[in-house]
Amino acid sequence: MDQIDRILSAAPFNLDPAARDWVRTTLADMDRAAKVRQLFVHICFGTGPEVVDRITALAPAGITKFFGPDGRAELDTLDALRAAAGIPYLVSSDLEGSRMSPSFGTEVPNPLALAAVDDVQASATIARIMAEEARAAGINWSFTPVLDINALFRSPIVATRGLGSDPARIRDHALAHIRELQAAGVAATVKHWPGEGHDDRDQHLVTTINPLSIEDWHATHGALYRAAIEAGVMSVMSAHIAFPAYVLARDPDAGLEAYRPASTSRLLNQTLLREEMGFNGLIVSDATPMAGLGAWAHRDVALPEVVSSGCDIILFSDEPEADIARIEAALDDGRITADRLDEAMVRVLGLKAALGLHRDGTVPADRAKLATPASAEAARKVTARAPTLVKDVQGILPLSPQHHRRVLIYSTGIVTPLHGEGMPMIFPDLLRAEGFEVTLYDPATRPDPRQFDLVLYVMAEETLLTRGRIFLDWNRLTGGMHGAMARHWHEVPTALISFGYPYYLYDAPRLPCVVNAYATMDSMQRATLDCLLGRAEFQGKNPVDPFCGQPDARF
Questions:
Q1: How far apart are CA 239 and CA 242, in angstroms?
Q2: Quick one: how far is CA 375 from the chain centroid?
């Protein structure tokens, strides 16, 4: 048995002879230029023939599609893209739920909300809905689940994208997610290797560091990755995260090399992940335009190192043709060997074959399976179990128009880097429909909170990429220094409701009433209102420490 058969016949590919033959035949028909292009997965925004022509000309291994609001146009474009592919595409997406859900799919909760529900069967139900709809639409690869541990509350990159702070809870829900995705023909990806959540910075902005000792890493992140590998996860995302303890154990004088991002580290990708952990599947880099890579080295140097260190896919490129030239140059001067290129191609093609794309990679979307009433109802029932009452020390709840008719809301709206800032929420109108008189705070008029029966701080900030911190920005909420210093909850019933980030008590530990609801989608806003009005019970369990280690925040 040669190396190709050893890779393809073993887990997680498990290819039969016919599928292995397809890989061999396809690989034999590719020249070097075609192989280089198959190293890339390109980001894909927009719809229409121009998008199809641009991607087709690049001939990549696949695309990561970010979907706009016109679901029909998105599906038409995706059908056209796959039909035009010479080699079937890996079509990837971040199936993370909430605002990351495709516009044509069912609205489902995000990972932190599922961790709050803490029912593995419920997580499996949501994963099954996402997976079946994804495959029906032509998506066959998800960059989920997130295995990061939300150890530091200030980590903006984990928060609502992760499954909380308890490794056992993360493991159980992540394994359910992997199982359901791959049963539906969607490859799962565990990320962010070698583990995020102990650094309060964002690898979109800086190379972050996993500071754990090797022993502590094996007991936490290592155990999570080992469980995922044993479960047959098909891919791992190697991130722009350093693991200095592992490097220094092999070379105490490593110096700066100890802080090399995993995405360019042969020690972390080949020695630790492949050899010690036994992972045989596909390694994909995290997005290479991120500053966590760009801050480390010039792209002429760093991009070839992504491949030579063991990543089989380069994720995203701002300058595709220039990046192709960078890889070609590295092949010419020996920084990337022909054998390393072929090994990457075996795993890229192997993943495609494992997903059956050599048989059905161009089949149009099955639109009848998308956003069905049954899926919507199943997702709604799970979502309703997520809202979590963190505290209500003054007994404000339940709310009612009889006791809290005049409501003043402070809010910055739904904030997300992919969809713009300050998007409107339906929550104020939901309150109005229940008989409340709602006023949205306007810094220009500065309404006096003491003239109201209830003050609500309504936050809607899920995990935000490229934002260094998420916090309760009093100045922005109130429009200036004077309002930022005022606290009226001793005079007016006051509550904070977070449809996203769960850690606002760090900035306001004396807030008397706090509800965490984790996700900004409309169905979560409706479910949370039902709980606030006493029509439904708060069932969520804190998946993180919402008190941020501050003892006074509990009172």
A1: 9
A2: 21
> Which is catalytic among the residues 79, 118, 148, 286?
286
* Residue 251 burial (CB count, 10 A): 11
Are 212 and 220 in contact by the 8 Å Cβ rule? The answer is: yes
Q: Is residue 29 part of a domain?
A: yes
Residue indicated by tokens 């802080």: 259
Q: What is the pLDDT of residue 262?
A: 98
Residue 310 lies inside a defined structural domain of this protein:
yes
The whole-angstrom separation of Cα 519 and Cα 382 is 13
Q: Of 361, 396, 413, at which residue does a domain stop?
A: 361
CA distance 73 to 71: 6
pLDDT value at position 417? 67
373 belongs to a structural domain: no
CATH of the domain at 271: 3.20.20.300
Per-residue pLDDT, 420: 63
- Domain endpoint, select from 311, 329, 361: 361
CA-based nearest residue to 235, from 284, 277, 186, 192: 284
Are 262 and 243 in contact by the 8 Å Cβ rule? The answer is yes
Q: Say whether both 346 and 428 belong to one domain.
A: no
Angle between helices 71-84 and 49-58 (to 10 degrees): 30
Report which of 221, 307, 214, 208 is spatially closest to residue 260, judged by C-alpha positions: 208
Number of structural domains (the chain) is 2
44: closest CA among 85, 5, 3? 85
- Run of H or E residues at 72: helix 71-84
Dihedral Cα 128, 132, 137, 141, nearest 10 deg? 60
Q: Check if the beta carbon of residue 65 is closer than 8 Å to that of residue 44.
A: yes
| 286 in active site | yes
Q: Can you tell me which residue has the tokens 């110096």?
A: 255
Task: Answer yes or no: do 214 and 108 share one domain.
Answer: yes
Residues 431, 507 share a domain = yes
Residue ranges in the chain modelled with pLDDT below 70: 1, 417-421
Distances in whole angstroms, Cα of residue 118 to Cα of each of 176, 382, 387: 12, 10, 12
- Find, among 23, 184, 178, 179, the residue nearest to 88 by Cα: 23
The encoded tokens of residue 418 equal: 């992919």
Asked if the structure places residue 374 within a domain, the reply is no
DSSP tag of 534: T
**C-beta separation of 413 from 425 below 8 A:** yes
Give φ, ψ of 432 to 5 degrees: -60, -40
* 242/211 Cα distance (integer angstroms): 8
What residues form DSSP beta bridges with 146?
A: 191
pLDDT of residue 100: 81
For residues 477 and 455, what is the distance between their CA atoms, to the nearest angstrom? 13
Domain with 440, as residue range(s), is 382-554
Rounded to an integer, what distance in angstroms lies between the CA atom of residue 359 and that of residue 343?
A: 23
Domain of 504, CATH number, reads 3.40.50.1700
Q: Give yes or no: residues 31 and 129 share one domain.
A: yes
